[in-house]
């Protein structure tokens, strides 16, 4: 059973998590959507949220002990230092993708909303949740403050991720958190194969590539979070929120999850896809409860109804149908793909799933959750979408995070009769940590970044789609552009100041 204090902690965290993820969607409804539609949707979502939050808080009597001054100070300082080191706020150099991050900020700040690109004769269309609140405030106080606002906004998300770990892990949570942050993929297997069999195909350093179908696995808590916070933050928060509901399923979990994933959809659709196997599993467990008391189904439907303009917006993008970046693994014509796919699954996921099942024989509830995670990690990568296979990299974050969190808990706290197995896995984990440490070392000592929100690129006049054209190809720019005469533009979009030329 979950203690009352733990219940309180989860209730507060659920509310903070939903609020953090849904806020950009509410801002979008008020600023990009016609008031006659945006305001009623805003009111509808807020009404459902207030009702659901009130129900969640009805049993809370006090703040949990974990929310003490010491924990808050340690988590605040460590997460803030983490972000500063990795270039958030422009205090250190930033990775390549930050040209695109900063260009999106710049486009949203210097242009009126909805953003219109005269060069492409269409509007901006992208899941902008991560950037929208920062851009909105920067419009009011000045673009020069955007770097600090971006740092603070990301800091709030990382703090929530840290609080979830502290709430889900009851014993030695700080040690577990350290293991989680240092956790890396199982690159050592591919490295050994390359050493033993130098001519083996499809194995570049550290990942598997069939030419047209790469498998790239990244730890969601280190390099992946730095590369793509707009995808990873909602994915991690969704994974932990759903895990808490699996442990303690209050009836409010369905509308709460609808609000959470509705907000996450605007952050990054891949995070929602990755979370859906867990939602479907929870719904299957509680299906008769909801059919007997359909008020929670009604609330979830109202959430979807309130998000219709947003859903219409993100589905109006000019997504490319290039077969080179949109395919199933069976379409690549490589007969040995099952062998390499098995290598990818075994070395990264099954290797942790087996000891968790074997050495925790009585925790059947957790075993079911692991099984859902493993099935998701085996099924979702069979499809590819994106130049570097963004689908595979991003959709696996919720399931991979769950495996990592409970693997870290097992590594730190296991004290059974087979402790020698744990020490063997600790040694394996220590070797893989070298990859994370190598990634961290690239940021030490600090040096200036080459991209800024005030000037994302050296020419100084490139937009986000311009960058996509320059670094990739014209078709890639379509992911940032709206289809002409789309349903959103014709029926939902706020009357723009700039009129498109026909």
Q: What's this model, at a glance?
A:
Helices cover 62% and strands 3% of the residues.
SS elements, strand count: 6
Helix-strand topology string = HHHHEEHHHHEEHHHHHHHEHHEHHHHH
Shape: globular
Order of strands across the main sheet? 1-2
Cα-atom radius of gyration: 23 Å
Tell me the major beta sheet: 2 strands, antiparallel
Contiguous runs where pLDDT drops below 50 for at least 5 residues:
1-7
Percent range of helical residues: 55-70%
- Please tally the helical runs, counting DSSP H or I stretches of 4 or more residues: 22
Query: Mean pLDDT, rounded to whole units?
Result: 89
Strand content: under 5%
- Please report the distance between the alpha carbons of the first and last residues: 64 Å
User: Structural class of the secondary elements?
Assistant: mainly alpha
Describe this entry's structure for a reader.
It contains 22 helices and six strands. The chain has 502 residues and is mostly helical. The strands form three sheets. Strands 1-2 form a two-stranded antiparallel sheet. A two-stranded antiparallel ribbon has the order 3-4. A hairpin with a 4-residue loop joins strand 1 and strand 2 (122-123). Helix 1 packs antiparallel against helix 6 (146-168), helix 4 crosses helix 5 and helix 10 (229-247) packs antiparallel against helix 11. 43% of the residues are buried.
């Amino acid at each position: 059973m979950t203690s009352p204090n733990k219940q309180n902690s989860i209730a507060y965290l659920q509310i903070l998590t939903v609020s953090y993820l849904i806020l950009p969607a509410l801002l979008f409804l008020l600023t990009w959507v016609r008031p006659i539609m945006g305001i009623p949707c805003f009111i509808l979502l807020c009404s459902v949220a207030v009702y659901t939050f009130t129900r969640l808080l009805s049993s809370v009597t006090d703040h949990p002990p974990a929310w003490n001054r010491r924990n808050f100070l340690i988590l605040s300082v460590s997460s803030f230092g983490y972000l500063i080191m990795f270039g958030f706020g422009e205090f250190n150099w930033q990775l390549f993708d930050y040209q695109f991050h900063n260009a999106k900020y710049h486009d949203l700040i210097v242009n009126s909303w909805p953003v219109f690109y005269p060069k492409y004769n269409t509007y901006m269309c992208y899941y902008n949740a991560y950037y929208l609140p920062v851009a909105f405030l920067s419009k009011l106080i000045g673009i020069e403050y955007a770097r600090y606002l971006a740092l603070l906004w990301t800091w709030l998300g990382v703090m929530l991720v840290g609080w979830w770990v502290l709430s889900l892990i009851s014993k030695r949570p700080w040690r577990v958190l350290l293991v989680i942050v240092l956790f890396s993929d199982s690159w050592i297997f591919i490295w050994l194969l390359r050493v033993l069999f130098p001519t083996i195909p499809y194995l570049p350093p550290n990942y598997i590539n069939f030419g047209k179908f790469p498998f790239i696995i990244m730890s969601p808590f280190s390099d992946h979070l730095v590369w793509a916070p707009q995808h990873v933050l909602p994915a991690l928060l969704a994974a932990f929120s759903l895990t808490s509901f699996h442990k303690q399923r209050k009836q409010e979990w369905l509308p709460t999850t609808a609000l959470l994933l509705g907000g996450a959809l605007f952050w990054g659709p891949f995070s929602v896809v990755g979370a859906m196997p867990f939602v479907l599993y929870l719904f299957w467990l509680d299906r008769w409860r909801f059919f007997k008391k359909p008020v929670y189904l009604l609330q979830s439907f109202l959430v979807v109804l309130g998000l219709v303009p947003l859903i219409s917006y993100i589905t109006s993008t000019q997504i490319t149908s290039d077969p080179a970046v949109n395919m199933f693994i069976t379409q690549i014509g490589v007969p040995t793909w099952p062998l390499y796919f098995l290598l990818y699954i075994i070395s990264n996921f099954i290797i942790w799933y087996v000891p968790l099942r074997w050495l925790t024989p009585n925790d059947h509830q957790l075993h079911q959750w692991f099984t859902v995670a493993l099935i998701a990690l085996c099924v979702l990568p069979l499809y590819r979408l994106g130049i570097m296979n963004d689908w595979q990299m991003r959709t696996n974050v919720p399931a991979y995070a769950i495996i990592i969190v409970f693997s870290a808990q097992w590594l730190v706290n296991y004290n059974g009769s087979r402790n020698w197995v744990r020490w063997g896995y600790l040694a394996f984990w220590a070797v893989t940590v070298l990859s994370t440490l190598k990634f961290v070392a690239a940021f030490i000592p600090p040096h200036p970044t080459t991209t800024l929100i005030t000037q994302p690129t050296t020419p100084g006049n490139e937009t986000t789609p311009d960058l996509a054209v320059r670094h990739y190809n014209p078709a890639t720019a379509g992911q940032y552009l709206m289809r002409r005469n789309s349903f959103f533009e014709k029926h939902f979009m706020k009357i723009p100041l700039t009129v498109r030329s026909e």
